[in-house]
Amino acid sequence: MSAPMFFSRRRFLRQAGAFSALSLAGSLDLLGLSSASAQSGDYKALVCVFLFGGVDSNSIVIPYGDYATYNAVRPLATNVNVAQSLLTPVAPANLAGQTFALHPAFTATNGNATLTSLFQGGRLAVVCNAGTLVEPMTRAEYRSNAKKRPAQLFSHSDQQQQFQTAISEASVVTAPTGWGGRIGDRLAVPMNGQFATPIGMSFAGAQAFLTGRTVRGLALPTAGNFGYTGDSTTPNAVQRARAEARAELIGSIDANAMVSSSQASMGAALGASQRINPILNGTLPSAISGPFNGLNSGLANQLRAVARLINNRATLGQRRQIFFVSIGGFDTHSGQGSFQPPNPSFQGMAGLFQQIGQALAAFYQATVNMGVANEVTTFTLSDFNRTFKPNGAGTDHAWGGHYLVMGGGVQGGRFYGQYPSLALAGPDDTDSLGRWIPTTSIEQYGATLARWFGVPDADLVQVFPGVGRFATSNLGFMA
Length: 479
Hints:
This protein is α/β, with parallel strands linked by helices and 479 residues long. 33% of the residues lie in helices and 11% in strands.
């Protein structure tokens, strides 16, 4: 006969991982950062849009004035060409005499502004040739191994981890905290209070980006309820009794500090579910429904849900919010697709770009309608860029790439960082395939956003430990 099973409070707390949105609101491992003074009425949100698979950002930003250089490496025969006749030129205000274009598949619906229009209107900026770096590096230093490289360079999983953690010596094995989570460590309690809904929320599952030392991100669905498996919005007698017993276990006093901390965490998560479920399932305000009308892609659904939570920030008790959303499919070794007149096909990568353009444009317009466009900044990340030189029907893993930053607080209409030389085997290439060595680090990119978000300069090094290795921690794209 087997030994009896004692379902103790400690065992219950260990096994409570079935609660998908569990957020560790407290921790015994405190950071010890300097205190922040909360500013009454101050609100800001960061929205990270992760492009999983390593997006070909050489197609996000295309040289227009120097199209011949682009076309020499990516002609029509390579099957990844974007025809110049379909491009709308833009002139970055800080690059005199140079013109570029965003991919024409970044379209918009419902009268929303396209990404090109947002750039021209000063609401969208491009951060050029950014990537994971341990320290600044030239082509000569890379090829002679004179400088330390990021761990597992060109690996999807490791580079995703490094972009989310801003620690370029990290790998999926070391699993450090994320820079969104470390920002939350710094600002969650001072800005939102001890008992507010967790500062970080993901609509793309649990992500390292939102994991701090004292905070964890909520993993939320875009619709429907979240909570313990088996719970119901209309519980029967058995379900009600089970919920009451669980609440008693969580609320009981325990002398063990670890158990007590876990109890507080689960209590906070349950409280969050009671606040968030009605928001995600309530009637959609016209400020959000109008811009998103007819958009049902995965990314559009995620950003629509983000807009709901921003619109209800007061209900959630939040003056700071950090969100993580994503779209995948960018591992385009083949099937990347060209974009040609007279009837360009929105297939392959162009189809993904169309989803991004429509969803980002709708989200920006929703923030305008809600009156928070200046307080919400949306930015893209990815595993890495892809080779400038195609492989026949697609592109291979590369390194430094171009990223978009959108919002009313963005100093838009400009390029930040350094746009690379497009010469194969040139000064920015690791080899001869157009794998650009980043000239801007993820630490610099993230630190610029963190400063705008409210992290004091004195604390930036604790959020981005390697930022001091680079010339500046402020790229200047935030007002």
